[in-house]
Amino acid sequence: MGKSKVLVIGGTGYLGKRLVKASLAQGHETYVLHRPEVGVDIDKIEMLISFKMLGAHLVPGSFTDHKSLVEAVKMVDVVICAISGVHIRSHNILLQLKLVEAIKEAGNVKRFLPSEFGTDPARIENATEPGKVTFDDKMVVRKAIEKGGIPFTYISANCFAGYFVGGLCQLGKILPSRDSVVIHGDGNKKAIYVAEDDIATYTIKTIDDPRTLNKTLYLRPPKNILSQREVVHKWEKLIGKQLHKITLSKQDFLASMKVEDVEYAQQVGMSHYHDVLYEGCLTNFEIGDEGEEASKLYPEVNYTTVEDFLKRYDMSAINAKVTFQHHHPRLHQYLLCPTPPIYSLSASASNTAMDMKA
Ligand SMILES: NC(=O)c1ccc[n+]([C@@H]2O[C@H](COP(=O)([O-])OP(=O)(O)OC[C@H]3O[C@@H](n4cnc5c(N)ncnc54)[C@H](OP(=O)(O)O)[C@@H]3O)[C@@H](O)[C@H]2O)c1
């Protein structure tokens, strides 16, 4: 059996662009929906063109034009939708009902992966309001898929590392601080963090895998199942400094959501953080017969650990290089010299030299 042809919808989005690249990298003939509504959004157009240059096919189609969706779907075997679902960005999960109708009419799709990529909406009990809306909407789409007899795989990707690890699990932060951190409750509830590129890799790995047909694929890379305190500790080790910890109780967190000037979209995000960090909703269940775990199915994927992900934010190495460049004329020599001599350098400078060799 050859590799499936893949259509990515929402391909210029935060996750979507990674899905397109992963699909191409894994050798799938890849199609990307080009919506006329994109108009003159130059960033999106440039991205679509870059996909084309990498070998993807651009397919015109719109959620307001049923026929165009049916035609797009007919070109492929697998449809992956990464339409927006984060309220603070935009939220269009229910638009997928139109896509479900198109897939039903086209009748050729071997697998549909709807826009999920987070908490398993079927496994979260008592989701906090108003964030429950995300899970309710995703369940509406699931029901339509299953009622329509469409073969599916749901991806439960847990926490996107860029959102959660980057901000040391603090809402509203996506860069790790070097002085203080707010700890949610006792900070010991375990969550699961997955680098966005790895989410895309696992997602594409699974599309032709019979083991995940009509199942949920949970992304639980074992080294990335960590509490907030463990994430913070890894950061502290990296920067060689302890952060000042400010504890935020569950009651105070919930009360802060209800403050008048907190917008609805923010409240939705806060409820999700509450469920993950105070309730431990990602790790309080075992994967049963209806699911599979990605790192077990695809052990060949060398996933990014939280530790390695955090290294992206450690500016000290970069600062050391800059300082070195300014203050050590020998660096200039080093850069120009094709086989650099080994200098006797100070501790930080020798790290710099090692970095540059790498
Ligand atoms: N677990 C986590 O931590 C986490 C974090 C973030 C997101 N997620 C999930 O990941 C999925 C993708 O989210 P994202 O943040 O990557 O999405 P996004 O970047 O906000 O948007 C993705 C795409 O949605 C499409 N879109 C937006 N408005 C549309 C409209 N009115 N009509 C048709 N298409 C529209 C656009 O596609 P075009 O390319 O066609 O313009 C856009 O590029 C969602 O299900 C979200 O819930 C999970």
UniProtKB/TrEMBL annotation:
Superkingdom: Eukaryota
Record's keyword annotation contains Cell inner membrane: no
Pfam families, alphabetized: NmrA (PF05368)
Signal peptide: none
GO molecular function per UniProt: lariciresinol reductase activity; pinoresinol reductase activity
CDD domains, per database record: PCBER_SDR_a (cd05259)
Domain NmrA-like: 3-310
Biological process (GO), any one: (-)-secoisolariciresinol biosynthetic process
EC numbers on record: 1.23.1.1, 1.23.1.2
Keyword entries, A-Z: NADP, Oxidoreductase
Sequence similarity: Belongs to the NmrA-type oxidoreductase family. Isoflavone reductase subfamily.
Subunit description: Dimer.
Protein's name in the database: (+)-lariciresinol reductase
Naturally occurring in which organism (per UniProt): Buddleja alternifolia
